[in-house]
Design a protein that fits this description.
nucleotidyltransferase activity; helicase activity; single chain; alpha+beta; about 400 residues; five-stranded antiparallel sheet; DNA primase DNAg catalytic core, N-terminal domain; Dna Topoisomerase Vi A Subunit, Chain: A, domain 2; DUF7146; 12 helices
Length: about 400
């Protein structure tokens, strides 16, 4: 199957190597199965006895529906009534059922987006209706236009874009800038004898092979841990160097450890320093591996997940630190395809962050979203690619 693609730009089920895909059709897949265009077996296409849908301008309809998805769903998707009434709760999926895998996005009234832990996220109301009803995009657009009271014959007004003055470049806090630079300069490489706690930690996570591979990780043998404004102790810490899209060192990520390689017995074992200016971490990442000239880059949330992707899938992968960091990630120049290795969270936060990043990047480059295959284990909040890597490593397979 190498080199073959499924219809519509989807990636084939047994293809795990990085590759280019259609930039205008981002692929969402759980494990190796493309999910963007597969109908659910329990969902019949709702065609009714309607004539072919009239044509509407997508921008007009999206603008008309923004903030009004509650009204739209009340008419076109009444099965979402309970989810709309309690949007912060989890509900049975309206497509496949279950108990609590479905919820609406936090901004659902504006976007119409939702997520199911099994079916994946839908980035806006049009995608949601296509999923629920089996409609294609033109039909979903026409139905929403009708509910919104748009007339397809009305001419669009000419709107001239306002002249925008770019904001001034942020001024870095020199004290923070000096502190993070000093911490990084004084930390030792992972092959140093004093870095043994970090090596033990990575080995315990199944990542011993990754230790010499990343120049973006170091060890501070005696990192100060602060809690509630006071010094609460000193611990070995794995230090990740956080760099923004312009290549500036904007902060450090710390994982506090015990000497035996376990997480330190503190309230928050993983902490970020303050950024060198407000919003410094937006678009930034721990650039664990250099680009390899292929134009392909992986991105995920955590350091450990990124290391597992590098080992299991063979592509350079960077850690965006958190779900919000993933959503705001900005690839550097030269990247032509981004593979998003998303966490599968019960809360839907990982899937939602991946969807937001897809929407930001899809018109600029090829984008593929990888969701871990399988179900979230009982008693766990999430399933990530480090879990899959360790499962597959026992069978001698790559992810």
């Amino acid at each position: 199957m190498d080199g073959e693609s499924a219809p519509g730009g989807a990636v084939t089920a047994n293809e795990m190597a990085p590759r280019r895909c259609n930039a205008s059709r981002p692929v969402l897949r759980k494990g190796g199965t493309a999910m963007s265009s597969l109908p659910h077996p329990n969902r019949a296409r709702d065609t009714g006895n309607r004539p072919p849908p009239r044509t509407f301008d997508a921008a007009d309809v999206k603008a008309a529906a923004a903030g009004r998805w509650g009204e739209v769903y009340a008419q076109l998707a009444p099965e979402l009534a309970e989810a709309m009434a309690k949007p912060t709760r989890h509900h049975p999926c309206p497509v496949h059922g279950g108990k609590d895998g479905f919820r609406l996005f936090g901004d659902w009234r504006e976007s119409g987006g939702c997520v199911c832990a099994t079916c994946g996220p839908r980035h806006d109301g049009f995608a949601t209706l296509q999923w629920l009803r089996g409609w294609d995009f033109p039909e979903a657009l026409a139905r929403v236009a009708e509910v919104s009271g748009l007339d397809h014959t009305a001419p669009r007004p000419v709107v001239r874009p306002a002249r925008v003055t770019p904001p001034p470049a942020p001024t870095p806090d020199r004290e923070i800038q000096r502190a993070i630079a000093d911490e990084w300069a004084e930390a030792v490489g992972l092959d140093h004898p004093a870095a043994a706690p970090v090596r033990r930690y990575l080995e315990a996570r199944g990542l011993g092979e990754a230790m010499p591979l990343s120049p973006a990780l170091r060890c501070d043998p005696r990192a100060t841990y602060w809690e509630d404004g006071r010094k609460a102790g000193e611990f070995p810490a794995m230090i990740g160097r956080v760099v923004d899209a312009q290549g500036r060192h904007v902060g450090n990520h710390r994982t506090f450890l015990s000497l035996d390689g376990r997480k330190a017995p503190v309230r928050d074992a993983k902490k970020l320093t303050r950024g060198v200016f407000p919003g410094a971490f937006s678009g930034a990442a721990i650039q664990l591996f250099p680009l390899d000239g292929s134009g392909v880059l992986g991105v995920c949330e955590g350091i450990e997940t990124a290391l597992s992707v590098r080992l299991g899938a063979g592509m350079p992968c960077w850690a965006a630190i958190s779900a919000s960091g993933l959503a705001s990630f900005e690839p550097p120049p030269g990247v032509q395809a981004v593979h998003i290795w998303a966490d599968l969270d019960r809360s839907g936060a990982g899937q939602e962050a991946a969807t937001k990043l897809v929407e930001r990047l899809r018109h600029r480059m090829a984008v593929v979203v990888h969701l871990p295959p399988g179900e979230i284990p009982e008693g766990s909040k999430s399933l990530d690619w480090l879990d899959i890597f360790n499962q597959e490593a026992g069978h001698g397979q790559a992810i």
